[in-house]
Amino acid sequence: MSNDELIKTLYHALPGSWMINLVMQGFNYAHHSLATFLEICERFESFESAKDKHTVRNSKAVGNVRKLLSQMMIAVAHVSTV
Fold it and tell me: pTM of this prediction?
């Protein structure tokens, strides 16, 4: 799977609140690298973690995206070292 396909797949797997924030920021996943996209998702994840600190809420969608992001980060790190 190409980086473009990975970004597209990850984008469409994001929680709705993350997608809304990306749209509000004018983010177009087709115009950014996988690394940039992952950095933005990590920021959202950090925000969610900080928010969840005060409320016990961990949606299934966020958990799935976190799993996908960690797998993608491992794959990107592996490709970068080759």
Answer: 0.57
